[in-house]
Amino acid sequence: MIKLYDYELSGNCYKLRLLMSFLGVEYESKLIDFYPGNQHKSEGFRQINPLGQLPVVDDDGLVLRDAQAILVYLASKYDASGKWYPRDNPALLGQISQWLAFADGITATASAARLHDALFYTQIDVDAARAGANTLFRILDEHLYFAEEAGQDWICPGDHPTIADIACFPYIMLSEEGGVSRMDYPAIRRWCDRFKRIPGFTVMSGVFPAGPAVSGSIVSAA
Amino acid sequence: MSCHDRILLDDWHAVADLEQLKSGAHLKTELFERVLKVSIQPNGMPAVTLCAEGRDLPVQVKYGFVWTSLGTPDRGIIDIPEALEADRYLVSGGSFPVKVSGLRVVENFLDMGHFPFVHTGWLGEEPHTEVAPYQVELTSDDEIIATECFFHQPVASPTADGGIEVEYKYRVYRPYIVALYKTNPLYPDRMDYIVLFIQPVGPESCVVHNMLCYIKEGMSEPDIRWFMQLIFAQDKPILENQIPRRLPLDPRAETPIRADKVAILYRRWLRDHDVNYGAIPAA
Q1: Is the four-CA dihedral A26, A212, B229, B99 of positive or negative sign?
Q2: Are residues A9 and B229, on separate chains, in Cβ contact within 8 Å?
Q3: Where does the GST N-terminal domain lie (chain A) (predicted)?
Q4: In whole angstroms, what is the distance from residue B143 CA to residue B14 CA?
């Protein structure tokens, strides 16, 4: 069985829990005491990941680090439908990769601000982190607005979400814990609600499920 | 707004987890908006300095935390016999900063009504939302005790295997210190114990230190920590979205219901003790 080196409050670990839940893939969580134990920086854990970071998966001896890399691997291996990471569509793969890199930027900004505010990472320049997060959120909000105008629900074109949506979701959803409000990003907020309604969606602490969906007829009447 | 409440200034407050402090040697923190430096001296004992005045404050180490006071403490740190029982763990679930008054955190801790909605699938689930009547009293030691609190919980503890009817007992020791006793799924006649030592950073911000005294049998320390953080991180965004961030003490504010019996007494007790820091005083 897949082993996920996991920490409940990590948005990067949550990305993998989300994908495996969407795909119905069974896995076993190996809990790492990230805070306050700092176990991810321990000698023992650095044998597994020399970077001292979560998440890591071990799938039958294949050990991988980096949430985005693991999303690519798991979707390629376990998604029989090929929709989360369409390997035969170069244009889409390029766009997915672009937004996976963007998600890393969200981690470096919105997640950093959250670490500062919520877990005593006092060395982080929180003003710079929040400003960086707002810059990225503005770009994504505009992108999603124009996608909606074109009849698209997800970050990348097509009628199905991709791992790009999964990669961007957690640290956007947790941004308020780092003092980054989503008030000014209505298209992001609508996308978050759509994301929460994907069958198999699961929460983590700090993320709540969507309310009941408004039925289509009410939307069209309005 | 600085703190003028003698009962708070003359009390002991946890300001650092000793293990955390040792890993970093020193840290800056705040108590009632006063900046403190907490450090480890060469002899291994912690020291707390009030930065603005360069003055050393009284220090005690208890329950794995560094405690200090800005005033002249006229009573000791609370006594917790459960912490000394050999068959219990004594674990910190980690200290967490929360952008809301610590008094709000206490009141949320005392509340069972939110279990099905905030801790869905863990400490409660719909449609089992009713909070049955329970008992509340103010003891001769001036503590608030709530007893006969029963709630059906799907996953009540790190070792729970399926839903059980849980009995809680709540206890408010001091304005910013609150604890609960809760049925242990393996030993129905014994209770696990969780206490929050809340550090008032400002009137609308705090650090929640906690100590978990779970019965060891069938339990591991990482699981205890995981469960505590899982639950607390569900509360955190709810707490940080409470408006106002301070706790209103006017009896007409935030109309209570029957399930809030213990909160009603808590607010009255705060009024009676002239606790205003972190509160909106009654008119």
Answers
A1: positive
A2: yes
A3: 1-82
A4: 19
Under CATH, which number does the domain A90-196 receive? Answer: 1.20.1050.10
Q: Which residues of A11-24 are buried (b: 16+ CB within 10 A; e: fewer)?
A: bbbbbbbbbbebbe
Residues of chain A with CATH 1.20.1050.10: 90-196
Question: What are A36-77's pLDDT values in tens digits?
Answer: 989 999 999 999 999 999 999 999 999 999 999 999 999 999
Say yes or no for a CB contact (<8 Å) between A8 and B233. Answer: yes
Q: Which residue spans of chain A are classified as CATH 3.40.30.10?
A: 2-78
pLDDT digits (tens, 9 = 90+) for B37-79: 999 998 889 999 999 999 999 999 999 999 999 999 999 999 9
B225 with A37: Cβ contact below 8 A: yes
Give the position of tokens 């994301």.
Answer: A195
**Chain B closest-CA separation from residue A194 CA (Å):** 21
Nearest CA distance, B106 vs chain A (angstrom): 19
Q: Tell me the Cα Rg of chain A.
A: 17
**A9 CB near a chain B CB, below 8 Å?**
yes
Alpha carbon of B125: minimum distance to chain A alpha carbons (Å): 14
Which CATH number is associated with domain A2-78?
A: 3.40.30.10
The residues of B whose Cβ lies within 8 A of any Cβ of A are 17, 19-20, 23, 27-28, 92, 94-97, 99, 120, 222-223, 225-226, 229-234, 236-237, 240
pTM of the predicted structure, to 2 decimals: 0.94
Residue-range domains of chain B with CATH: 6-68 (2.20.25.680), 81-245 (3.90.380.10)
The packing angle between helices A126-149 and A90-106, to 10°, is: 150
Measured at the CA of B146, the angle between CA B143 and CA B149, to 5 degrees, comes to: 165
